[in-house]
Automatic annotation (TrEMBL):
Source organism (scientific name): Fictibacillus phosphorivorans
Name of the gene: ku
PANTHER family (alphabetical): NON-HOMOLOGOUS END JOINING PROTEIN KU
Subunit structure: Homodimer. Interacts with LigD.
InterPro entries the record matches: DNA_bd_Ku70/Ku80 (IPR006164), Prok_Ku (IPR009187), SPOC-like_C_dom_sf (IPR016194)
Family: Belongs to the prokaryotic Ku family.
SUPFAM superfamilies named in the record: SPOC domain-like
Protein name per its UniProtKB record: Non-homologous end joining protein Ku
């Protein structure tokens, strides 16, 4: 993996050299914008509308628009000075329980690896966090932005999750139509809970795939090879409008899927059992032949 950040984790007087690595990757299929007439990639130039000339990247500065059309220029050196030494330190402020952070706060994930001469202290922090069941709430600067982050144990290492500040998470009360004053039918609630129970299963991330991305890749490969592009038919829509009917139909459908899944597992088990019995018979027959000879 490519090291994207070097620094140290500090808590109290302890300082642990570490490296950060991107833990996730975006697998979106990137498309280029082309000129429809000749299929040439469209270029984008930085042009000043007042001077009517192309602006070189060296001539660009950062500015904050405090009123429409009015800007205050902020120099890179000024921003670097504000960041100070914190740009190379992940300072753990508090240790808390993981459950205390709602998932809405999580932003991006980074693997943490030990830096030079930091293997033992890194292992010590991981072990202490593992035994206490705590995670570290930290602050650090990355790409000119101060982040709040959670440092936690992940498998055989540590992971850092950048999290949004409270004022960056919008108030759910501003969502229109939310109310607790809704009369619910007890039977509908029971059926909804029954459906949830039937659809409950262990989380196995490997069974979930980006079907749209796979379809787009198939379309692109078909176009490259010149094959006929086949588009899958849409699933027929049902005319179930009544909530009770919809719940019952969903329960019946989930039962059908569950039965098919059980039958499949039974067949696989029977097949494995038969295969095992066949192997056992072959071994017995082979043993008899050896004994008679």
């Amino acid at each position: 993996m490519h090291t994207m950040w070097k620094g140290a984790i500090s808590f109290g007087l302890v300082n642990i050299p570490i490296k950060l690595f991107a833990a996730t990757e975006n697998k979106d299929i990137k498309m280029r914008y082309l000129h429809e007439k000749c299929h040439s990639p469209v270029q984008y130039e930085k042009i000043c509308p007042v001077c009517e000339e192309t602006v070189d990247s060296k001539e660009i500065v950062k500015g904050y628009e405090y009123e429409p059309g009015k800007f205050v220029v902020v120099e890179k050196e000024e921003l670097d000075e504000l960041a100070g030494v914190s740009d190379k330190s992940i300072e753990i402020i508090d240790f808390i329980q993981l459950e205390e952070i709602d998932p809405i706060f999580y932003n991006r994930s980074y693997f943490i690896g030990p830096g030079e001469n930091g293997i033992k202290s890194f292992a010590l922090l991981k072990k202490a966090m593992e035994d206490t069941g705590k995670i570290g709430l930290a602050k650090f600067t990355l790409r000119s932005k101060e982040h709040l982050a959670a440092v936690r144990v992940y498998k055989n290492g540590l992971v850092l999750e950048t999290i949004f500040y409270p004022d960056e998470v919008r108030n759910i009360d501003h969502v229109p139509g939310l109310t607790d004053d809704v009369s619910l039918n007890e039977k509908e609630v029971d059926m909804a809970k029954q459906l949830i129970e039937q659809l409950t299963s262990p989380f196995e991330p490997e069974k979930y795939e980006d079907e749209y991305r796979e379809a787009v890749l198939e379309l692109i490969n078909s176009k490259i090879s010149g094959d006929e592009v086949k588009v899958a038919k849409e699933k027929p829509k049902t005319n179930v409008v009544d909530l009770m009917e919809a719940l019952q139909a969903s329960i019946n459908e989930s039962k059908g899927k569950e039965t098919v899944s059980k039958e499949k597992k039974t067949k696989e088990t029977s097949s494995q059992k038969a295969s095992g019995e066949t192997k056992a018979k072959k071994k017995k027959s082979s043993a008899k032949k050896k004994a008679s000879s």
